[in-house]
Amino acid sequence: MTQAWDDRLRARGYRVTPQRQLVLEAVTALEHATPEEICARVQQTAQGVNISTVYRTLELLEQLGLVTHTHLGHGAPSYHLAAEEEHVHLVCRECGRIDQVGPGAVAPLVTALQTEQDFETDVRHLTVFGRCGACRKAAIPGTEAVRSSGG
Q1: What is the DSSP string of the chain?
Q2: Per-residue pLDDT tens over the stretch 78-129
Q3: Could you give the domains of the chain?
Q4: Which has the minimum average pLDDT: 33-42, 52-61, 119-128?
Q5: Which of 16, 17, 93, 108 has the smallest number of Cβ neighbours within 10 A?
Q6: What's the rounded mean pLDDT across residues 30-54?
């Protein structure tokens, strides 16, 4: 996959810098991460890389179609690889866990919005908030559930 990143950058006239490679590697490893989380990961290898460099790099990589962002709540967007299959994000408001489901899971909603509201839904940016099964089970007296730290 690294070669594909390199080829895409070079084809558009950009150099393959260590900072760009580190940001792409961080996005890949972290899956859904804010620029701050990506910066912290990059700084484990290259302490001199600052948050503004990460933001500029993410902006460029998104323009090139290598990464995409979504809003998983208030605050900074979360980034993931654009090559990932299209998906809907499920965010637990209690533990912060992030799961993904395919677009088929919301197909009836998308169809209803199109039919009833003449509204075209961008599923790539769709986030559904609620409570995961583990948190719901933990709230029921007498049940045990393993809680995820989310991320």
Answers
A1: -HHHHHHHHHHTT----HHHHHHHHHHHHHSSB-HHHHHHHHHTT-TT--HHHHHHHHHHHHHTTSEEEE--SSSS-EEEETTSPP-EEEEETTT--EEEE-GGGGHHHHHHHHHHH-----GGG-EEEE--HHHHHHTSTT---PPP---
A2: 898 887 778 888 999 999 888 888 889 999 999 999 999 999 988 877 889 9
A3: 2-81 (1.10.10.10), 88-138 (3.30.1490.190)
A4: 119-128
A5: 108
A6: 94
